[in-house]
Amino acid sequence: MRIRSAERRDLPLLREVERAAGEPFRALGMAEIADDEPPGEAELTRHLRAGLAWAAVDERDLPVGYLIADWVDGEAHVAQVSVHPDHARRRIGRALLERLADHARERGSPALTLTTFAEVPWNAPYYRRCGFAELAPEELGPELRAVRRREAELGLDRWPRVAMRRALAGGAGQGNGWGGVG
To answer: Transferase: is it a keyword of this entry (predicted)?
Structure first.
């Protein structure tokens, strides 16, 4: 398994990975999440152009997982990370997170952030094992608060959600965690 920058030709396969990765939510009574449409080509292309999209590829160079990111409050923010269930439990998600961490450090980001379901085993509990810690509402920067508001508007708060942060050694501005926003 290798991680590389995602490419335009990968976009339909990234969407397939996302659909497959959503299926396990059905067993938790979260069919709406399983049925949610993956990010569209326009959104994925925006991440590609920003240099914030990576694919984990198999021996045929076909994506089996991917990560897209944004900059939120001056920190690298995981917008989506998904691994096809056929390739789960092989540390692919962790490798994608580490690729983003390397990219973020190179650009002086003090941390990674993300939002996720609090009680889904492969969400918040998994991210805790990857070094993320839950943020209290008052610890969220203004842009991360806006992300959470948007999620609530989309109905994602039907299930408990949390914002999480992982400090990066060697990142710049390791102060309040908001990348200099005070």
So the answer is: yes
